[in-house]
Design brief:
Structural class: alpha/beta
CATH topology: TIM Barrel
Distance between the termini: 31 Å
CATH superfamily: Metal-dependent hydrolases
CATH architecture: Alpha-Beta Barrel
Largest sheet: 8 strands, parallel
CATH class: Alpha Beta
Length: 273
């Protein structure tokens, strides 16, 4: 879309306060409470209501509790429960903590065998473990062998979250699908270059969408077909991120890819549709 041209989807949103004629999949979400923090919307019922209000068809989710839980009997228990309760609305990420890797490896088959799971979720900096180190090696080999999705937190040059480490993983693992979660704020150029060089790498808009010009920069740099809609819900209201895509100087065809078509393509690629 050239500057000054009108988007049919933007006009629709401004008229109705929501999108009606385009489907949306949110590829980066969480759910549940967080210790020491109050989230106005966090429980499952409230999140489902928000999805209905904002016409989001489904989400890919890792529950907050599962990202940090160390009780082997309950690993990823919250996400499993969400997938069972809302099979048409929620796809799960199997959170993997390399500090307790033996316990997590025992249940990792869930990510491949359960149609409700799309793959693995990594938080290298939070877990103080190098993405390209021994802690994640077996999980990455498993994801590569089974052709799974890996959503990995990336954040500029922070230890264990750097684009450099992600590139090392991408060079060794060609069969998995790798999302650079948050698209490495502080090193967006590096994230774009990584996605351009590796066809199994995707950028997501989670959190980074709030920076002016980011959506256009991603689309120019790697193409709309490699950008995923993600919100970090419930940390952000999805409308905030929807607005960043609607207000960007891109085409409505690009918006359709970002909001929905790219995510559907990934689900088909990994056999989870």
């Amino acid at each position: 879309m050239k500057p000054g041209n009108k988007s049919a989807y933007l006009a629709e949103f401004l008229r109705y306060g929501r999108l009606k004629n385009i489907k949306i999949i949110d590829a980066h979400t969480h759910m549940g409470s967080v210790y020491g923090c109050r989230l106005p919307v966090s429980d499952a019922e409230a999140c489902m209501k928000l999805l209905d209000e904002e016409n989001i068809e489904s989400i890919w989710c890792s529950a907050h509790a599962d990202l940090f839980h160390i009780d082997g009997d309950r690993i990823n228990g919250e996400t499993k429960a969400l997938v069972r309760k809302y099979p048409a609305r929620v796809k799960g990420y199997y959170a993997f903590n390399p500090n307790r890797k033996e316990a997590y490896l025992r249940g990792i088959g869930e990510a491949a065998e359960n149609k409700g799971f799309v793959g693995l979720k990594f938080l290298p900096n939070y877990h103080n473990s190098a993405l390209d180190g021994e802690g994640y090696a077996e999980a990455l080999d498993f994801a590569d062998k089974r052709g799974l999705l890996v959503l990995c937190h990336t954040w500029g040059d922070k230890p264990h979250n750097s684009v450099k480490e992600a590139v090392g993983v991408l060079k060794r693992h060609k069969n998995l699908v790798f999302i650079l979660g948050h698209s490495a704020p502080g090193d967006l150029d590096g994230a774009i270059a990584a996605a351009r060089a590796h066809e199994n790498a995707y950028l997501d808009l989670c959190d980074i969408h709030r920076h002016a010009g980011t959506v256009e920069k991603m689309v120019r740099g790697v193409g709309a077909e490699r950008v995923l809609f993600g919100t970090d819900m419930p940390w952000y209201d999805p409308n905030y991120c929807i607005g960043s895509v609607l207000g960007a100087r891109i085409t409505d065809a690009d918006r359709e890819k970002i909001f929905y078509k790219n995510a559907i393509g990934i689900l088909k690629r990994i056999g989870k549709i």
